[in-house]
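Handout, section B. The chain below has 234 residues.
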Amino acid sequence: MQTDSGSFLDLIRIAQSGDPDAERQLLEDNLPLVSAIAKRYSNSGIEPEDLRQLGSIGLLKAIRKFDPSFNVCFSTYAVPLIAGEIRRFLRDDGIIKFSRSAKSLAQRVRKELAENPDLTIDTLAERLCVSREELAAALASDTPVGSLDEPLPDGSGNRFDRIGTESEEELSVKRLTLSAAMQSLSARERLLVRLRYREEKSQTEVGSILGVSQVQVSRMEKKILTALRSRMTD
């Protein structure tokens, strides 16, 4: 599968300008990724070729929507869209059944993230001795499919009410993009974010931990949020 080299990004730009040959080349180069994800749904009762065709639709969407400014690898961006097309069909067609290997890997992922919530995709894949694609596909297959009539946790309606807003794939891409943006921060800045937004500590409490004043924490926080927003929306 292609990596995000200069030539690959050039091919993406050419394809997005409307060149069918470049688009076809990208599809062919990334078919192994589609096949890897399709295998996660091998027990769904759908023919393997049909699963690959569905996944290819998601791959085509990824090719047409990918932006290098997302600061994520193309394969990382593409996985949620590929899996989303397959999941959407299976959701409408019947109950999704996942392979034992997918369930086993998903369980290992949950355990690792429970113990080390700040792990990046690369580090997690290395720990579990799997590829980035296998890891991302397992995460996608581990997401439960809910009924459209299922009430939302905040009591504001049901899933049907949210149709037309962000899809699961779009949210997944945003999470991956944010994760990549976080890696641009220093260890001290990431600690500040974790203390403020995961542990919900006050600026004064964070200042005590970092050894700075509340005012300094406030300035650091504004600078960090500005940098993250810039990377997310550049």
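Note. The chain has twelve helices and no strands. Compare this with the example in section A.
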